[in-house]
Amino acid sequence: MTHAPDRHPTPSPTPPRSTPTVDQSQVRRAAWASLVGTTIEWYDFLVYAAAAGLVFGRLFFPSLEPSSALLASFATIGVSFFARPVGGILAGHLGDRLGRKAVLVATLLIMGGSTTAIGLLPGYATIGVAAPVLLVVLRFLQGISAGGEWGGAAMLAVEYAPPGKRGLYGSFPQLGAAFGLVLANLALLAAAGATSPEQFVGWGWRIPFVFSVVLIGIGFAIRSGVGESPVFQEVRRRNARRRAPLAVLLREHRRGLAVATGLFVGVNLCGYIMIAFIGSYGTSALGASRSTMLLVGVVGALSWALWTVVGARWSDRLGRKRTYLLGTVALAAWTFPMFLLLDTGSLGWMLVAVFGLAVGLGLTYGPQAAAYAELFPPEVRYSGSSLAYAIGAVVGGGFAPLIAAWLMVRTGTSLSVSGYMLLGCLVTLAAVAAWREAPRAEREDFVSAVAGDPAGAGTV
Q1: Which of 114, 306, 312, 345 is a Cys-bridge partner for 171, taking CB atoms 3.0 to 4.6 Å apart?
Q2: Are 192 and 204 in contact (CB under 8 A)?
Q3: How far apart are CA 80 and CA 301, in angstroms?
Q4: Residue 460 domain flag
């Protein structure tokens, strides 16, 4: 049975569905596991982005002049985004074939191992050109992990969620990005405060990376105690798994994939400007201290988390599309005021700048997990969500810090970066316009429905 990718027919009543009884303690555990796991993943991923703007240029690209070294270090951030679609495809295939849980544990371990190895990696002065080469390899592995992590965590939370609260439960993995940013900035802030500038560049920056070992142990313990998604259990019981879920996705759900990808472009682009560009911009162009810009990052992240929950709850009441529209308009409207406020160099106005950006970020990021779950049927949901998320990340945030830095060099004005952010928001507005959201009851049922006749299950 073929589902329209963004407007879903009522599932076939024959044969009847038999959704497993869900233990409420497992519902709560799945939500917290998705939050803790993605927080750790994003801590690992974002501590790299912050360190890239602060120290990597001098450590791994010392032969380049400062602005070129900064561009090179930002380029290593973008390398991981080439790996994200690969990670999304691999994890999506395995997640739709074998289940969500095992893949989530694997992505956690890959990210943690790569992050710890980066913390132990010698610089250019010690091993020469091998240092930046190994840095790129490890960053690529981080991208593989990040490409497969989000889709599984988001779908696990949403598929466990009770009806009417899928947006709220889907916000748990979304909060991982903001909380991971807070942890990354606090870890870097503590390391910077405990060392001199020379010590921080020499070895202090490594502490947050090596600390990832502890976080990974905690995350592994939590995730290993979560049962498989009840929706995937039903897929497996019905023998509705696909041999090649990616092929089914590309053949039957192209429109849903395009819409889901576009929905992520604006928020990801603007989010990465806050995550990986504003810190270095404040210290290099505005003359602010490293500690000041890390504080700005923490406030921005906490504000993002607040509005993510608001956006998720609104999407349960107002609908995903309407909430997305409000958030994208708010995000687009703030692109120019944000940099005008940042350029004052005043801490108070810089905090207002990132708080204002967080409103639009949260209203679009909060409903995303539930929206993606409602765009794809369970048999290809991990594949569709992971691939759309990964492609949206490549188009949106993958090279956002690099492009923003290049625009500053070429134009000499931060308003060019505002224009770049606005362009990303327009892409998301186009996706919202193309999104034909089904009625609430139909969407609720579709999330748990398993399509297809068992006699033809497992084929493409």
Answers
A1: 312
A2: yes
A3: 22
A4: no
Distance CA(371)–CA(367), nearest Å, equals 6
The CA angle 82-84-89, to the nearest 5 degrees, is 120
Exposure b/e, 169-192, CB count within 10 A at least 16 = b? bbbbbbbbbbbbbbbbbbbbbebb
Q: What percent of the chain has pLDDT over 70?
A: 90
Rounded to whole angstroms, the maximal C-alpha distance in the chain is 69
Ranges 42-51, 152-161, 225-234, 258-267: which has the least confidence: 225-234
Query: What would the DSSP string read from start to end of 272-337?
Result: HIIIIIHHHHHHHTS---HHHHHHHHHHHHHHHHHHHHHHHHHHHHH-HHHHHHHHHHHHHHHHHH
Q: How many angstroms separate the CA atoms of 84 and 29, rounded?
A: 27
H-type helices in 161-229, by residue range? 166-194, 197-199, 206-210, 212-223
Give the residue among 231, 271, 40, 25 at the shortest CA–CA distance from 150: 40
Determine the pLDDT at residue 12: 39
Sequence-distant (≥ 6) Cβ neighbours of residue 432 within 8 angstroms? 262, 263, 321, 324, 325, 328
Number of domains, the chain = 1
Residue 14 falls inside a structural domain: no
Q: Which amino acid is at 73?
A: S
**Does 12 fall in a domain?**
no
Number of helices (H) and strands (E) in the chain: give both, helices first. Answer: 22, 0
Residues 88-131 have pLDDT tens digits of: 889 888 878 877 778 888 888 888 889 899 999 998 888 988 98
Here the CATH number for the domain that contains residue 139 is 1.20.1250.20
Position 361 scores a pLDDT of 96
Domain that holds residue 407: 25-449
pTM (whole model) above 0.85: no
